[in-house]
Amino acid sequence: MSSGLASNLRVLRAIFAKDLRQATRYPTQIIMLFALPFLFALLVHTMGNYVGGARYAEYFAQQTGTTNVFVYQVLGGAIWLLSWIIIDRVGSSLREERISGTLEQVYMAPVNRFLLLISKALVQFVTFGITFLVVISLSIWLFDGQAVGGLPQSFLVLCLGLVPLWGISFLFAGLVVRLKEPYAFINVANLLFSILIGTYYPITILPSWAQVASRLLPQTYALAAMRQILLGNAPLVGLQETYAILALMAVVYPFLGFLAFKFFLDRTTVSGDLSKF
Q1: Looking at the 3D structure of the chain, how many domains does it have?
Q2: DSSP assignments along 97-153, one per residue
């Protein structure tokens, strides 16, 4: 039991160290992680100011419950960017291993494939977790200093929401194995996520069918809860209900996602398509 745990930890540590070394070789990407939530928010904020005029914050508050437009948008952009990075990193990991010539060695190694998938997102979680804390703390300090006390609870919600997000990324990894084209498929899906999770607006303005789809995504609940904690705007559901929903998703989504990934991977292995990936 202990030897198996130690072996798994060595796998996670090795892949984490490799990916961290690769990530730190490109510091401009880390700088962009800090800048993008602000740039996205600034773009939407500027358009809203132009369209809404002097009373745009008042109109915004009628729909969202808060006049703090900029922090609202930064939160949405940060969560969307985080989900994009995790899904892209896990979903395209097989393609990258193939390009680098290490796919066969990795998947023939006597290592749990579930660990391989999780480890692919660890560096992104750590680097963007730090980025998230810095970006949101800076935004709140500049625009709403009273909300700083809610940062620990909001970060807890974020961490809980990431677990089912990994499950969704497992499904995407399986589809990438089957379709052999990661980038177009993942990019389109992430753009749809930006619409459904309420990145820059509450999901209540969406059509009823889109609201049903958005309530199947963990990012929707995590983002709404964080806005409730930090900005005090109207919740999607209560915080206790949010914790319960995310906890349920954290159990179900990784299980179903890994089953889907294993199904597609086994089929391509048997058919020989994996070697043609």
Answers
A1: 1
A2: HHHHT-HHHHHHSSS-HHHHHHHHTHHHHHHHHHHHHHHHHHHHHHH-GGGGGGHHH
Closest CA to 151 of 141, 163, 162, 165: 141
Neighbours of 195 (CB within 10 A): 16
Model's pTM, two decimal places?
Answer: 0.82
Can you give the residue range of the structural domain that contains 104? 2-276
Q: pLDDT tens digits, residue range 76-88?
A: 888 888 888 888 7
Block residue for tokens 């499904």: 171
The C-alpha atoms of residue 191 and residue 268 are separated, in whole angstroms, by: 28
Token pair belonging to 152: 């620990």
Q: Describe the crossing of helices 2-24 and 122-143 by its angle, rounded to 10 degrees.
A: 60
Q: Which two tokens stand for residue 84?
A: 């994009």
Q: Which residue type is seen at 129?
A: G
What is the phi/psi pair of residue 67, to 5°?
A: -95, 0
H or E element: which one contains 30?
A: helix 27-52
Question: Mapped to the 3 state alphabet, what secondary structure does 37-95 carry?
Answer: HHHHHHHHHHHHHHHHHHHHHHHHHHHHCCCCHHHHHHHHHHHHHHHHHHHHHHHCHHH
Could you report the per-residue pLDDT of 105-146, keeping only the tens digit for each?
666 666 676 777 777 667 767 776 777 777 777 777 766 655
pLDDT single digits (tens) 224-237: 888 888 887 767 77
